[in-house]
Amino acid sequence: MKNHSRLSTATLGLALLAAVVSLALPPSLSATTYTWTAPSGSWFDAGNWDANGVPVTGTAHTILLTNGTSVTAATTTYASPASNLVTGNLTVGAHNTLTLNTNSQLLRVQGGNFTNAGIIQNTSGNGEFQLFNKTFTTVNTGTIQATTGVFFLNISEGTNSGDLNNTGGTLLAKNGATLRLLNSPLNTTESKIIGGILKSEAGGTLRVTDDTSVAQVLRLSGVAVTNEGTFTASQSYGGGATTGARTSNVFLNDATTFTNAANATVNLLNTGAGTATAATQLNARLDMNNTSSFNNLGLLNITNNTTRSGTNLTSNALVFSINSATATFQNQSTGPIQVINDSTIAGASALFTSVKSITNGGTVRIKGNTNNSGASFVVTGVGNSYTQSGTGVLTLLERGGILTAPSVAINSGTLGGTGTVNGATTIGSGGTVDAGGTSNGVGTLTFANTLAIAGTAKFDLNGIAVGGTDYDTISTTSLSLTNATLTLNLGVDFLNVLTTAGGSAHLSLFTGSGLVASFTSVNVTGFNASSVNATYNGDGTVSLRLTSSVPEPASWAAIAGVLTLGTVCLRRRRAA
Length: 576
Fold this sequence. Notes:
34-stranded parallel beta sheet, 11-stranded parallel beta sheet, single chain, disordered N terminus, 48 strands
């Protein structure tokens, strides 16, 4: 009995001590539930809350915004607080709206559960909402939306990963607003959104970027992404001492679907200029994994245009990568893809790469820089191919752009430019190979493997002196022609050049080996086309001569003499 009495006394003493300590703790350290009771009003008006008043910072607290009904919706406006607010648990019920107009202040859920079945938004200025609760439940079945300015949504916990279960919910950037993800330098690992909808309306922007010297990752798992405005993953550099990698990585995982609507833009960008005083890397990429899909009806823009002074900006890469053979990628007739490297940094790159075959139904433009190409469209894997089909299709290689695939099939549309094609290439009966470009620009298009033409080969001729400079050329290791057509497009001054040269010229259109082949027909188009005859010689060369309707320079003297004699005879007859 004595032992039991002592134990009871000790237990009672501990309980009393705990009660005293609890009373002595500041409000921010004790667990308090704050319940919104008003139909609408300011967060900072005590009359809008229950007896506990306006919430104060504390990771043990709970905030309930749950009094709205289908008849009477409740709106809470969180604007211009004196300081940032951190809470443990936050519940926003259906028919409740939490509006954050914080102008650089923030509301953070940390160390507790988050549930939203209503609306969380900003309506003026900027707002920031942070979910720092990796080990707790984070669920959105309602809507989190940017309605104006920039709304920062940060899903992380310091250096820990963060997940948002968005199944049944929507993350939305409305017209004129930006929903910005991965914004905090605290988020140095990754964030994950599971399920639901991620959308930008026309005029809205979804931005995945940080612009600070950390590596950040956003993983989308089973999310339906619809971009009707702009979706941007980027890194920028303004100079100064920045050590390490600035990385924005977006992963489309599981059954995530991504639709880039017509007139919308997906950007993978590296931008900025300045002098790097410490080792710095800029990398932005989007990876397709598992059974994810990407349907492109708008612009897919992969552009690297950084410049720098010094040698410390050591790596500068942009990558759109299809990593899974079960992923699906479609480029529709309205969907241009551009892979552009305008960076002045040696070794900088812009890359589209795929481990499965790609069919292009729109436009693919690959543009290298003046230092080295650094711009590539690559399909890997034995038996895989790059196929161009549909109407209005184009693949254009500029300034050393590179297209690489085990095989390349241009069934329709045009393959042109001044870059390099790595892979056995077939130009189908409905296709055209346009060396040099598509707008009377001249240059050399290189095929590092075989070239088989069953369609049309088009060459622009501005002069006759130097192949690749004055007229288009194609370099290949092997050429085969089947019912193929040769089209020679004359520039505005070509007739004068040919006339000055004596009325004939012999041009090497194809260079390399294995060039014994013949075109079924030869057409001459462009300026004064009817004044020039062309003959393909079956060895990669073409012979050009002025037609009989255009006198050669040597004939002008004889013609002038005949005209003079006729004039004299006419005068004598009149005199008689």
